[in-house]
Amino acid sequence: MNIPNNLKYSNDHEWVRIEGDQAVIGVTDFAQKELGDIVFIEVETVGEALGRQDTFGTIEAVKTVSDLFMPVAGDVIEFNEGLEDKPELINQDPYGEGWIIKVRINSPDELDDLLNAVQYQEIVNE
Predict the structure, then answer these.
(1) What is the Cα 49 distance to its own chain's centre?
(2) Is 13-110 in CATH node 2.30.30.230?
């Protein structure tokens, strides 16, 4: 299982990559493996300000549909439109081409509440 050291993680299996005052958010390698083959992503929150733990979209796999949660509060500024035609990018490259949204961070101090790679590894090994 791939858990890059340069990212932050939520207990809900989202990852966060910080780029200045913005965050790129996706689901972890662990999450995509647990979900199975991803067939659809729905994000209708672009342009909205959402709080931490708010639902920003849904991810649908062959066997289930799951909510996607904001790991930090922010304004959703972009959805990875490549996922509309190829949602399987999340399975193939969860930390690269399979990113889901970009967010302008409203509360940078919330980043301190996220997990590092070692802490996230401990959660998925439980």
Answers:
(1) 16
(2) no
